[in-house]
Predict the structure.
Amino acid sequence: QVQLVESGGGVVQSGRSLRLSCAPSGFTFSTYGMHWVRQAAGKGLEWVTGISYDGSNKYYAEFVKGRFTISRDNSKNTLYVQMNSLRAEDTAVYYCAREGTSGYSIDYWGQGTLVTVSS
Amino acid sequence: DIQMTQSPSTLSASLGDRVTITCRASQSISSWLAWYQQKPGKAPYLLIYKASNLESGVPSRFSGSGSGTEFTLTISSLEPDDFATYYCQQYASYPWTFGQGTKVEIK
């Protein structure tokens, strides 16, 4: 079955960097677009960034442009997001998510990893 | 960016009630709309894709309709497992955006 396991979350000081990873299983990773979505405590879902199946296209929410970089290594079956210049408002649970095919948006989600940015 | 507005923000309902949640887009998104259910401490779960297509394994009491800028999620007869928060999401264009959520509570 499809599984997405995030790692790399933790507590980091404002202005510092953190890299999150996502390890997929149960499907052919190299054929699916992937995304990161976040959720601050008690708040709604917020799409952060997405990448095409081959890494050739990348998309970002305005509030992370220039600070976050999404990437993937299909040979290592891993999705990443490099988060630089972190701010307190980046504190959230970050979900790795798979983009389905044939008219789907996100069809599978990981359990999330918590990022806490302390000031 | 396309803004997604859900209503109501909170809904109090009883078991067996028919429940309807509305989602409006700030511009036409054709049928590129998904609905998710989320329970506290859990990841979201896909219910509906492309506005009206029921995801495999989702109970048939859930249905979606609409196109363009107005969409609805309907639960035909509320069951205990349905008390949760529901989100709509557009994927017509980047950046993808979510509605603010509708919490379905027990009356």
User: Anything to note?
Assistant: The mean pLDDT of chain A is 97.
